[in-house]
């Protein structure tokens, strides 16, 4: 192909920002901003694969299911994940094509609805950690725990969210299709929300499971699949920090895999937050990747050029 490959993982905040109501118009406007930034990266000569979170969206779909259960049959979590993957893929695909056309870049864009293979005995099914859906107050969280049996966790400085099982991804079932499109020069949007989690059954059958795969873990798998040089994880902070949200917070501009492991072991990067991003960066680098970068969406291009974000390397 000749171009430097990068997998860009968009955080849920790139599609639905904190305190927004979640209208289609809000999400489309946010996606357009993200697409404009990514189109600039394509214009710099990168071959791009895009993946994205779906936490707020799939949580909202589940809440609608719960509220309408006396009128319509509720759908399981895997089906809700597929629904959100299609919706966000549509918005991204459309806005990316518009941004590329506006920039004078002739490059096709395609979304691949992706199933992610997980192990049926993954311990995550006994220990839900993945936040999904909107933020709630402490009072709302208690009510949802009592009325719906949801497990809730507090997110520092933001509120409470529901958590669900998040098993580790093993393989992407549509991996060959994604790779062929990438090698043909297509900008591929894949594995949205980490992909729909499925387990293998006898007779080469796949079955969806009630879980959400962390999109950062899947992003590392996706990057290895296409042979990307860089993994760019975009979130709602400008840099990784130790002592985040506490006295003595210190932003990190650059760290090695060994340093990242030390911070993980010290509990600096909690599960369901920065932890999976750091672990995914380590996985990617140890599998042969050159750079893993964690940055804000607004500084994506600057981060790739080494002028923003947190760079992690071997």
TrEMBL record:
One of its GO terms (biological process) is L-arginine deiminase pathway. Gene3D superfamilies: Acetylglutamate kinase-like. One of its GO terms (cellular component) is cytosol. It comes from the Archaea. One of its GO terms (molecular function) is carbamate kinase activity. SUPFAM superfamilies: Carbamate kinase-like. The chain crosses the membrane at residues 177-199. Keywords: Kinase, Membrane, Transferase, Transmembrane, Transmembrane helix. The keyword Membrane applies. InterPro entries: AceGlu_kinase-like_sf, Asp/Glu/Uridylate_kinase, Carb_kinase. Belongs to the carbamate kinase family. This is Carbamate kinase. It comes from Methanoculleus thermophilus.
């Amino acid at each position: 192909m000749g171009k430097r490959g990068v997998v860009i993982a968009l955080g849920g905040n790139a599609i639905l920002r904190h305190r927004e109501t979640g209208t289609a118009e809000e999400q489309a406007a946010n996606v357009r901003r993200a697409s404009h930034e990514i189109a600039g990266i394509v214009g710099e000569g990168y071959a791009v694969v895009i993946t994205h979170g779906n936490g707020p969206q799939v949580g909202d779909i589940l809440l609608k299911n719960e509220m309408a259960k006396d009128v319509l049959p509720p759908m399981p979590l895997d089906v809700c994940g597929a629904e959100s993957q299609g919706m966000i893929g549509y918005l991204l695909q459309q806005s990316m094509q518009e941004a590329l056309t506006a920039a004078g870049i002739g490059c096709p864009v395609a979304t691949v609805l992706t199933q992610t293979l997980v192990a049926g005995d993954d311990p995550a099914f006994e220990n839900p950690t993945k936040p999904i859906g909107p933020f709630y107050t402490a009072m709302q969280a208690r009510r949802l725990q009592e009325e719906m049996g949801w497990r809730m966790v507090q997110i520092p400085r933001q509120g409470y969210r529901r958590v669900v099982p998040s098993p580790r991804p093993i393989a992407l079932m549509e991996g060959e299709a994604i790779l062929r499109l990438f090698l043909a020069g297509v900008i591929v949007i894949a594995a949205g929300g980490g992909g729909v989690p499925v387990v293998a059954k006898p007779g080469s059958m796949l079955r969806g499971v009630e879980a959400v795969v962390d999109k950062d873990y899947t992003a590392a798998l996706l990057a290895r699949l296409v042979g990307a040089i860089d993994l760019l994880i975009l979130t709602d902070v400008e840099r990784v920090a130790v002592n985040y949200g506490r006295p003595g917070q210190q932003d990190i501009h650059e760290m090695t895999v060994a340093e990242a492991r030390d911070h993980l072991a010290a509990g600096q990067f909690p599960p369901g937050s920065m932890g999976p991003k750091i672990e995914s960066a380590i996985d990617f680098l140890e599998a042969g990747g050159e750079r893993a970068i964690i940055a804000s969406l607004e500084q994506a291009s600057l981060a790739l050029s080494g002028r923003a974000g947190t760079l992690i390397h071997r």
